[in-house]
Amino acid sequence: MATLNIKGLPERLYRKLRARAKRNHRSMAQEVTQILTSALEEPEPVSILELQGLGKELWAHVRATARVDEERRSWD
Predict the structure, then answer these.
(1) What percent of the chain has pLDDT over 70?
(2) Is residue 66 assigned to a domain?
């Protein structure tokens, strides 16, 4: 595992980082790793069909292209 040293970190930022790590019950290194992971990793793509609570069962038998065409016609 790699090691990262940060020089010249402003004291105010250090205090905020230390407080955040404490709130999350993590070490400073674990908190920095979490922050960097969240900032740099690509999120997993989510399919609309995988989302909960959006009424997907109502749309299960609807052809999306037909529905879009129908809605567009209603705008005229």
Answers:
(1) 87
(2) yes
How much is the pTM?
0.56
Give the sign of the dihedral formed by CA 40, CA 45, CA 50, CA 51: positive
End-to-end CA distance of the chain: 61
Q: How many residues does the chain have?
A: 76
Give per-residue pLDDT as tens, 3-47.
999 999 999 999 999 999 999 999 999 999 999 999 999 877 767
Assigned domain for 61 exists: yes
Distance CA 41, CA 35 (A): 10
| Residue 3 is assigned to a structural domain of this protein | no
Q: What single letter denotes the amino acid at residue 10?
A: P
Which stretches of the chain are DSSP H helices? 11-23, 28-40, 56-59, 64-75
